[in-house]
Design a protein that fits this description.
Blueprint (H helix, E strand, L loop, with lengths): L4 H4 L10 E4 L8 H4 L4 H29 L29 H12 L46 H12 L7 H17 L20 E2 L4 H14 L9 H21 L2 E2 L2 E2 L5 E2 L6 E2 L9 E2 H12 L6 H17 L4 E3 L10 E3 L7 E2 L1 E2 L8 E2 L4 E3 L7 H6 L3 E2 L2 H14 L2
Antiparallel strand pairs: 1-13, 2-5, 3-4, 5-6, 7-11, 8-9, 10-14, 12-13
């Protein structure tokens, strides 16, 4: 990694901090936007939009039918991403009553579409008839993230089910295998005609419709599809037909990954948190997540690409370019301090510290940028509101592990 990058990215600690502008929200998928596509492409996208709306109607109708005129059960309690679904236990544990209970909870909360909501502790009680599929964390009931790949949802449930069914051969595991197949088909149905995946399906609108790389969403889905296609280990039960569909979907996903890698002055760099579902252009997300290259998401995308067997020349070139970009934008001699209620987290000089990466980089200047709740974009993280400085991962060293893996990978792929 190059020490010269520190000079390039001196802006975060600049004496004259500035507000660079304000982020523009991402556009949802609409019929009006589809009409701007070439005529030959519009049919597939309109069919997708209609399918999504039909599935949303079916999901809501199913819940309403369960409830009838009776009392509505309270929503499940909230939990952490992936809560209650450990994936690192010994194989035999997944045959235990504890693991079976988690798998039963997972099946009970599977939506009619086949996906799962996020942030529910799967070690809790199974769903009762009429209960919503998601937690509201004390807020008014809504229909948000009912089927999502955000916060490790759906991908984690599928991986857990695969482990449990592997310890339940024969009839004992049929319900778990059926739920797994339904979940994979949910992912297949949610895939856009160009190979990308929305954050929420059926579509929710807003930035949730964008192709979502943020927080491992895309890479988690791709890994599930690749595992199903391989039919090995916990996924050995997958039928050849479903494996073929998963392989084709994974190939489409890889093509859109390669197509969306940002090119600046003829040089490939990394990826953004989100890309427009129709144009693949960089897209913003929440108010404090502006259009920008993202080091964390790039690192995670490289991780999954480096796990591919026999990568094509195009994939290998994308990996090398992404790793080179991460090396260029690393900074040293600074630290991201711990959170405090008074001063908040801050970027501060510290000799010998690093390397660190900003989560976001301006695409044209490659300088670190930062967003706040009011959609303002800053060149100095220390100028953000206290709540945002303490409440978001603006700096981190995660890409260092990816670059270590790249060093080993590049030695095998000349």
């Amino acid at each position: 990694m190059k020490r010269a990058a520190l000079v390039l990215l001196a802006a975060p600690m600049a004496a004259h901090a500035a507000v660079l502008g304000h982020m523009t929200p991402a556009e949802p998928l609409t019929d009006a936007r589809i009409a701007s596509l070439p005529a030959a492409e519009q049919g597939a996208w309109r069919a997708y939009l209609a399918k999504s709306q039909a599935q949303l109607d079916a999901d809501q109708t199913a819940l309403a039918a369960e409830r009838g005129a009776g009392p509505v059960p309270p929503a499940p309690p909230s939990g952490k991403a992936g809560g209650g679904m450990p994936l690192n236990r010994p194989a035999a544990w997944y045959g235990s009553p504890e693991a079976r209970h988690v798998a039963d909870n997972i099946i009970s909360f599977q939506t009619p579409a086949g996906g799962w909501g996020k942030n529910v502790d799967r070690s809790g009680p199974v769903r009762v008839r009429g209960q919503h599929y998601i937690s509201f964390e004390g807020a008014k009931e809504s229909w948000n993230f009912v089927g999502t790949i955000d916060n490790d949802a759906t991908g984690t449930e599928l991986r857990f089910l695969a482990r449990v069914q592997a310890q339940a051969p024969g009839a004992a595991g049929e319900t778990y295998r059926a739920a797994f197949v339904k979940g994979v088909r949910y992912l297949l149905n949610s895939q856009y005609p160009n190979g990308g995946f929305p954050q929420v399906y059926p579509l929710q609108g807003g930035y949730h419709d964008a192709i979502t790389i943020n927080d491992d969403a895309f890479s988690n889905v791709l890994q599930v599809l690749l595992d199903a296609a391989a039919r090995q280990g916990d996924d050995a039960f997958v039928t050849p037909e479903l494996a073929g569909e998963a392989r084709a979907a994974a190939d489409r996903a890889i093509r859109v990954i390669l197509a969306s890698q940002i090119v600046v002055n003829g040089v490939r760099t990394g990826w953004c948190q989100q890309h427009d579902e129709l144009t693949l252009a960089p897209a913003g997300a929440r108010n404090f997540e502006p259009v920008a290259l993202s080091s964390f998401e790039t690192a995670r995308m490289l991780d999954v690409l480096m796990r591919l067997n026999d990568p094509s020349p195009d994939i290998a070139a994308a990996v090398r370019a992404g790793a080179a970009w991460l090396e260029r934008v690393a900074v040293r001699d600074v630290e991201w301090t711990a959170a405090s209620p008074d001063a908040g987290r801050r970027l501060a000089a510290k000799a010998g510290a690093g390397p660190l990466w900003s989560r976001y980089y301006d695409i044209s200047t490659m300088k670190a940028i930062f967003g706040d709740r009011d959609r303002s974009i800053h060149d100095d993280v220390n100028e953000l509101s206290l709540e945002r400085r303490n409440g978001y991962g603006w700096w981190g060293n995660g890409p260092a592990k990816t670059l270590q893996a790249f060093a080993a990978w590049s030695g095998k792929h000349h």
